[in-house]
């Protein structure tokens, strides 16, 4: 309620009250809501991607270092998130190359250099924001490695590779015998979304030829699909909390599926691809019948809580990858619809303040339980990734 | 076994084509269930008036009735029929039952249907609920303009085109799951040489062609030449097609242009 009194925040909250509450009650085409048949043209999609990129760059400019922070309607800017800065790097790099903008590319490189400079002696990277000064965390380290690999692949910077090797060696050292990570895991519990750490390990195996990276990644991946995945595609130990582990958020479900799928595609391992597909198909079914996805899902795929746009974008990315892998245009169709919903969420008010313009909120409506009244940089990152991959898939579809 | 049709509108194109197709196959429907709607009531009154006229003036009035079923788009519905066919049509019109019903799932409609005896009903009137589907004296049929089980759901004509597959008509039993009922009849629709103006025109063309097989399918079933075959892969979510995104429709049009 307090946020309503703050002019900048109040405008956004009021807008969400109107469009969310009205949207649920009517399917009238004049009411703009995610349940109507709103679609955006390719030009509007490009514009949405541009706005998202501009916000990420604004986020970087608002930091005292080269990382990316998140914006809260009341608490304002956070300090830089180490983990998310890591995986924002390939997003901005791809976008900079797409629009042929050297400045965007150099900003991505600057972020990687900053991350390299804050690497812990062990080889890992700290959790949460830089100002929190936390110990190193497995998941976060994996995401920073993603960023370093993309810069190494772009300009061959050996320093980036050395830093990534140090990190991967540390990840392999601390992995448990069973294949999961418990030491230096978030809250010191094993979690299946570490499949998102396995891809950078496998990428490093491809670059360096170090077989241990491949073995450790496979060990984790098979621990997930053999011990933690249910017949219906749902995962045990998938939430980033202890309290809500029985109904994980779509965001961590998205990490898990995406990690399995990417690794399966890279290794040409059908078991992993099918495991990812099983979960992705379930969400595909739910999305097509409801036209949106809920924030959390229990073991029977019963949804609860408001929309978490980050997770929605991640699932759209998974479907786009499945489209590329299988050629089934139904996945592309669902992703286009999901991105319509996300663009609608992004497209809030005219003359929006640069602190929020183009950004994707943690929840829709903005007062939802996940990152309430906040614009986490990872939401906008995955939204950009989804639009970027959709653009590539559309180009491929047109050329077929 | 009795035969019947359901429709929202006696003047609708699909109803006219289906009725024509049945008449061509010498099948005279025993009844027609017309959904009540403000504007339709006039049509029903018109049809009743026509029937009354038919009874009064016999054969000449058949064309009067059929003329009332004719629209500019569909052309004249009066089919080329054998003498025997005409005499059966005449007897149908004499005893024809056109029921004005509130809705196909309505309690009074269910009572009416359950009293009809063993029947085959071709449905064009929305989704049937389970309380209708459990009636064991009736086989409800749907004319689906695509191959089943591959293309269940929506925009299936466009999806088949998008995936460069042939266009089929499938006549199947209506069951609880969407387009999941046992298949009675399936045939490829020839679209070669068809000039595509728009996707909507193409859809309408395929629908019309599909409805033309109604009589052939029912006739073969009544003569025990074909029987129901269960569908496979009912649980595969990727065989359930959803509305095609406008961007993909544009891709499809560009593909077809090439």
Helix and strand run of chain A: HHEEHHEEHHHHHHEEHHEH
Mean pLDDT of chain A: 92
Largest sheet strand order of chain B: 3-2-1-4-5-7-8
Determine the structural class of chain A based on helices, strands and strand pairing. mainly alpha
Overall pLDDT level of chain B: 77
Shape estimate of chain B: globular
Please describe what this structure looks like.
The complex is a heterodimer of chains A (400) and B (258). With 400 residues, chain A is mainly alpha-helical. In chain A, 59% of the residues lie in helices and 4% in strands. Chain A has helices spanning 7-25, 42-61, 82-98, 102-117, 138-155, 158-174, 195-208, 211-228, 250-267, 270-290, 309-326, 329-346, 377-399, and strands spanning 71-72, 76-77, 125-126, 136-137, 296-297, 303-304, 374-375. In chain A, the strands form 3 sheets. Chain A has a 3-stranded antiparallel beta sheet. The N and C termini of chain A lie far apart (52 Å). Chain B is α/β, with parallel strands linked by helices and 258 residues long. The N and C termini of chain B lie far apart (49 Å). In chain B, strands 3-2-1-4-5-7-8 form a 7-stranded mixed beta sheet, with helices on both faces. In chain B, strands 6-9 form a two-stranded parallel sheet. Helix content of chain B is 41%, strand content 17%. Chain B has helices at residues 13-24, 40-57, 60-68, 83-95, 107-114, 130-133, 156-162, 199-211, 214-222, 246-257; strands spanning 2-7, 31-35, 97-101, 119-122, 138-144, 152-153, 168-173, 183-188, 240-241. In chain B, α1 (13-24) packs across α9 (214-222) and α2 (40-57) packs antiparallel against α3 (60-68). Chain B has one domain (2-37, 71-150, 167-235): Rossmann fold. Chain B is built from 10 helices and 9 strands. Chain A binds chain B through residues 39, 41-42, 281-282, 284-285, 288, 328-330, 332-334, 336-337, 340, 394, 397-398, 400, and chain B through 159, 162-163, 237-238, 240-242, 244-248, 251, 254-255.
